[in-house]
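Q: Here's a chain of 595 amino acids. Please give me its 3D structure as C-alpha cells.
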Amino acid sequence: MHKITTSQSLRQAWYNFFESKQHAIISGASLIPQNDPTVLFTTAGMHPLVPYLMGQKHPAGVRLANVQRCVRTGDIEEVGDSSHCTFFEMMGNWSLGDYFKKESIAFSFEFLTKVLGLTVSQLAVSVFEGDIDAPKDIESAEIWASHGIPKDKIFYLPKSNNWWGPAGITGPCGPDTEIFLDNGQIPCSPNCNPACDCGKYLEIWNNVFMQYNKTIDGKFEQLSQKNVDTGMGLERTLVVLTGANTVYDTDLFVDAIAMVQKLSGKVYGNNDTTDREIRIVVDHIRTATMIVGDELGIVPSNTDQGYILRRLLRRAIRYAIKLNLPKASLSQISQCFVNVYSIQYPQLLSNQKKIIQEIDAEEERFVKTISQGIVRFEKLVQNLQGDTISGKAAFNLYDTYGFPLEMTQELAKENNLKVNVDGYYQCFEQHQSKSQQGATQKFKGGLQDNSQATTRLHTATHLLHKALKTVLKDENLGQKGSNITAERLRFDFNFSRPLSQDEIDKVQEMVNNAIQDDLPISFDEMTVQQAKDSGAIGLFGDRYQEIVKVYSIGDFSCEICGGPHANRTSELGKFEIVKEQSSSSGVRRIKAVLK
C-alpha cells in the first residue's frame, strides 16, 4: 500500500486496482452529452454508458472502470462551503450483466481497506429499506456483515437515501448501498444515522445495483441485464486520505487559491466571508475551464450549456469584484487549473488559448452589464415611493443585469433603503419552478430512447457530418454537439461563417444521394489508434489501446460511435435541412428532419 497524497496518485491507484480485477480502463466521455436530450452536462459516469446498461454490447467487455468529468449546478448556491463543487471527477466501475452485489461489495471493501488503508472501524454503510417498488435489500446487508462491518454500522434507509436514478426522466435505476466514513464523533442522538447532517458520517462511495428500468409512466420494470454502477467522488476521497480540511485544501485548488491571494492581496483561511468568496471564484473558474476546454468545448451564450457557463462566469466575476481582483485575473486563475489537469486531460492544453479568450471576453462583457445595472438601480431609486425596494424589482436586477441580492442590498443600504427579501425569494422560486418545468418539457424523451425514429436520425448525423466536411472543404470541421429527439436532429459543428443557400442545398443533396444509394451500415471493433489510422472521424480520447466501435456507411462515412444505427441508408427516408444558424462563437448549428 502506497500513501496517496495527490489527485493523480489516487486516479492511478483506481486504475491499477480495477485493472487487477479484469476491468477495462476506458476513457471518460465529454462533459457535453451526445444524443442525450435529458441533460445539459454529463452528471455521472453512467451517462455515456446508458446504451450498454440497457443491453448493447460494449467493445471493451463487461467489466469497465474510468474517471469521469462531471458538472452539476443544482447546488450552485451552496458552493463556497467546505465541500460543494460544480465540477467534480467521479471514479466509477461497472459490471454489464457480469458480477453483481457480492463481487461489487467485495471490490469496494478491498479497495478501501487494502489500497486506501481505511479500517473497518472507520466505515459505516447504508442499504435500501424497501418500498412498494422494490424489496428490502437484506442481501447487501448480509454481504457487508460477512466482511466484518458490525450490524450497528449497517443502516436501512428509504429510497430518498438509497436509490439511484434514473439520471433523466426515465432509464436504468435501482437500490444502492452507500459507504461512509465515520469520523468517530459521538452520535447526535439515538437515531443518528448516515442520513443525518450532523457531520458524523461522510459519504465516499455509492454502489448502484441497476435492476430496474423506470418507464415514462412511472413504473419500475425488471431489467433483463442486471448491472452494477459505482461512483466514488475523487475530491471528497482525496480530502479523507490527505487529512485536508476541505476540498479546497487539496492539490487541485492550492495553486489557484494562491493566485487569488497574490492578485487580490486577500488572505485565505482567516475570514469566513473572504474564504467563501475565494472558493466561489476558484470553483466556478475551474468548471468554466473544463467546459470551454472540453473536446466539444462550449462558449458562453444565452441558451442551454452556454447559459449555464455564462451564469458560472458571471457569478465568479461578481465575487472577483468583491475581492478587488484586477481585470483579466480570472484567466490567470484558469491557467492554474490547466496546469493541474492537463496531464489527465490534454485537451486543456490544446484549447488553452480559447479558454483565456472566452473568459476574458465574458469578463469584459459583464463589467459593462453591471455598469448598465447600476444606472438602472439609480433610476429605480429616483422613482421609488417609500423606503423599500420591492422583491420583484430586486429580482429583475438579478435576472436582467446579474445583480446578486447582496449587491442590491449593499447599494440600497448606501441610499438608506431596505429590500423586500421575502418578495425577492418568492420571485426567485417562481422563476426556478418555471425553468424546471421548461427543462422537463425541453429534455423529455428518456435516456433509453433508442426508437426507430431516433435511430434513423442518429444515423443521418453521420451522413451530415461527412457531407459538411466535403462540401465546405474543411477537414478541421468537426462535431461540437448533437441533440436528437424523435422529431428532429440538431448538429453543432465548428465553422466560422454562415452557410450559403447553395452550400446548404449541396449538403442536403449529398446526404439524400447516400440514402438513395442504399448503403450498408456495419461496425468493426478496433483500438483508438487503429481507428485514427483508418481515417475514422470522432472523439479519439487519450487511451489509444482502448477498444472502440467504428461504424462505416458504405464507402461514404467512417466514424467512431456507440450507436444506435439503422441497417441500411435506404431506411432513413428523405433528409431535409430546416434551419442553419449560429450556436455560439465559431460554432454553427443545423436542424434537420427525415420525411
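Q: Can you summarize the key feature?
A: Residues 438-448 have pLDDT under 50 and may be disordered.
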